[in-house]
Amino acid sequence: xxxxxxxxxxxxxxxxxxxxxxxxxxxxxxxxxxxxxxxxxxxxxxxxxxxxxxxxxxxxxxxxxxxxxxxxxxxxxxxxxxxxxxxxxxxxxxxxxxxxxxxxxxxxxxxxxxxxxxxxxxxxxxxxxxxxxxxxxxxxxxxxxxxxxxxxxxxxxxxxxxxxxxxxxxxxxxxxxxxxx
Length: 181
Known about the structure:
Helices cover 0% and strands 50% of the residues. It is mainly β. A seven-stranded antiparallel sheet has the order 3-4-5-6-7-8-9, with no helix packed on it. A two-stranded antiparallel sheet has the order 1-2. β3 and β4 (38-51) form a beta hairpin. The chain is elongated, with a radius of gyration of 22 Å.
């Protein structure tokens, strides 16, 4: 009850109204611990939203800003090396994240169908008692994708125009070095 929702007002601008709506969904995750420091993570999540009452100028029953079915699988490796004068831990992961096509959208609110996507990320970390070195690459295959519709308070196109979909970054490499005392 009294879900605050952005709508187009009859005067042509965006505003907020209270509506009644239901949001439902769920997620499940699992981790399998193998031998020699390997583990496998897997998960899936889905959310849906439906309007129980319709705001003015709106006939679409789908609630906006609901993520489509998303899944994640990650292979991890962790090994402690203690035979050295300074023991350290090596941790690495390669993960695949997938989202289905986003078809359950509120077209009256300006949302657009988003294509499904799959990205692969890689991380490597070396940790000692005082130092941590982390490097990685997100979106390893340089996939062009968007996680969400970008109609909310669109500062680029203006509130009353048809906003552009803003894509996520392309391939992104990073390196960080940390020290704790």
